[in-house]
Structure formats: C-alpha cells, structure tokens
C-alpha cells in the first residue's frame, strides 16, 4: 500500500513538473509567433541604393517564423537565406513606390502601410498689376478751388476769429441755460422794455448788428462768409475773362485787375496759384469754334434759365436746408399742439389773476409750460427774424452768382472766350451739380477730354 502511494505521488509530481514546463513554453511560443507576425514584414525601398545586412533581431525573427511554419528549428544561415528570399520576392510595385526616398530600411508595422509620393508644386510667382484711372470733373475741381480760397480769405480776415469765438461761446450749454433763464424772467417781469422791438427793427433794416445771442452770432458769421464768397467768385470771373481775351493788351489789364482784387483777399501766392489753375482747367476742356455757334438767348430764355438755376441751387444748398430745419420747429406744429397750447395758456393765465394761492401756482405753471414749449413768443419771433435774415443773405448770394454766371456765359459765347465760358459753366455746375448742367443749357458746350485708363 505504501509503495503504491509513493508511486502515485511520484507520477503526480512528474505530471505537475511537465505541466509547469510546458505552460511557459506555450506562452513564449505564442508571444514569439505574435512578434514574428508583427515584426517580420520588411519593405525594401530604392533598389538602386546599397542593401544593408540583416540584423541579429531580424535573423532571430526569421528563425522563429520558419520554426512555427515548418514545425522544426533551422540554423542561422537558413534563416538568413529565408529572409533574403522573402525580400527577393517582393513585387516591383513596392520598389517603384519607394523611389525618391533617401535610404532603405526594414520598418516593423502592425497594420497596412500606404505610401504617398508628394510632388512639390512649382512656386507661384505673384505678379503685381499696377494701373491708374484718371477722371477729372471740372465742376468738382472748381468747387474745391473756391472752398480753398474761401478758407484762406476767412483766415486772413481779422473779424473771423471774433465771430467764431462768439458762435462757440453762445453754443455752450451754460450759455443756453442763462439765455433761457433771462427769457423766463422777462416773461414774468418784462425788464427789457422796448429792447425786443428795437432789436427787431435793427434786424429788418440792417442798421445795427449787435452780437449778443446765439442767433445774432450765427447770422453775423454767415453774412461774412456769403460776402467773401461773392467777392472771390467775382475776382475769379474777372481773371477768366482776361485770360481768354483775343486782345492781349486788354486781356493783361483785365487779368491784372482780377489778380489784384483776389490778392487782397487771399494773398499773392494763392492768387497766382488760382490763375495757374484756371489756365490748366481751360486746357483740359476742349472748346472748339463750333461750340460758339449757338444763338444768343432772348429775355424770356434767360429768365427761364435763371429761375431754373436758382431753384435747383436752393434745393441742393446745405445752408438753406439747415435754416429751414430750424424754422420748421416753429411753423410745423400739429393742430393738437396749436389748440392745446392756446387752451392751456388761456386757463393758466386766467387762473394766475386770482387773489388766492392759486394765482402764484398758476403763474408758475404757466411759466413752466411756456419755457417747455420753446420760450416766450417774442423771443421766438426774434430768433425767426435772424433766421429770415440768414435765409435772405444766402438767397441773395445765390441769386447774384447765378446772374453773374449766365451773363458771363452769354458774353463768352459772343466774344468766343473759352476761359470765361469754362469758368461760367463751372460756376453753374458748382451751384446746381454737374448732372444738371445739361438740363439748364440743353447741351454742355464744354467737351471733356477723356483720358484712357493706363495699366
């Protein structure tokens, strides 16, 4: 019994020993087989380059692979031959894909490998295109010239600084509050006496102009600008007439007279520059003899053209629009506002006469209502008078300049003066816009020279 037990124990021990030996070997074999499957794939690139000798690890992997496939072990030489045969059997497509690379190597991979041959695109050479388009608008250039001369003339006028200072002073918020407080006090206690009516008379007749409010300061400044603008246009028209005269002696005399008047306003340098600009503007505009064959206008035609120019200039003038915008605050009121203001002021005015405490309260409410609606009516009337004088001043300048343009235009047609014709039409274009010139004259007599675009 003891011998049987010892034999069984020995057999069990041997079985366990064999199992312990076989299990790690199986795992090692499986691991080696997996490594062989993952690492034995080699790619040979660029057959024109020298081939490297296989490494020891590659030989070992090849041996393991051969052992797994054939079920027997092979020598080191056989593994090397197997690897060489494997490389020799690679398809020619793999070699073609590998051309262009710089070395040959064996790449261990665990999945498919895709080679993409990148072709360098040729560098794009950027070409710089340069070009220019020349467009000359004679009406716009003449308008800019007058604006520059106007700025120069105003800067040389000693009264300009005082008027600008007065306008900016009375536009301050503090001065507006002070002016409204004085109007409210005068509404309650009329301490000004005959002052408002006397000031209104001076405004209408133009005998005196005292700058003591915002409205009077703005009117004084606009009056100065309009007067200087008219002098500049008259001087430029005089120079244009002299430059285009066929009689050279008379032309030099007229030109010198215009330059002297312009020099007094803007200085010698700016006057000479303006003369040069007139000559260049006339040279850019082709006015042939056939363009002076138009019949002179009769009285009715001239009046019609003048009326058309004046209406269009009043529509396009920004100063006129600004003045009308201020006036519309007084005359564009709704019927409800007109009726309600009349009813409220009547009730509060009657209630303010009562001897009880209702009187002062109603008077206070009346003053608050009046100031909230723009101030007392006599103050509003004074402001409207100043706006009316501004409107009149602007209308007067536009009227005189339109007459000047038409008269000199017809004179240039009769005397065949191209420079005067050029500036007269340019003045009309400044007033009404270049797109309306054909509407007034029927056809523009100035043929613009078209300059082709250059690249």
Give a brief outline of the structure.
The chain is built from 18 helices and 2 strands. The chain is 71% helix and 1% strand.
Structure description:
There is one protein chain. This protein has helices at residues 2-39, 56-70, 76-88, 92-98, 138-156, 158-170, 173-188, 195-205, 214-243, 248-266, 268-284, 299-316, 318-331, 335-351, 358-372, 377-415, 418-432, 437-441, and strands at residues 285-286, 447-448. The protein has 455 residues and is mainly α. The chain folds into two domains: 29-41 and 51-98, no CATH class; 138-448, no CATH class. A two-stranded antiparallel ribbon has the order 1-2. The chain is flat, with a radius of gyration of 51 Å. It starts with a helix and ends in a 7-residue tail after the last strand.
Uncertain stretches of 5 or more adjacent residues: 25-52, 68-79, 93-119, 447-455
Major sheet description: 2 strands, antiparallel
Domain unit count:
2
Structural class: mainly alpha
Write the layout of secondary structure elements.
Elements: H1 2-39, H2 56-70, H3 76-88, H4 92-98, H5 138-156, H6 158-170, H7 173-188, H8 195-205, H9 214-243, H10 248-266, H11 268-284, E1 285-286, H12 299-316, H13 318-331, H14 335-351, H15 358-372, H16 377-415, H17 418-432, H18 437-441, E2 447-448
Antiparallel strand pairs: 1-2
Helix pairs in contact: 1-2, 2-3, 5-9, 5-11, 5-17, 6-9, 7-15, 8-16, 9-10, 9-11, 9-16, 9-17, 10-11, 11-17, 12-16, 13-16, 14-15, 16-17
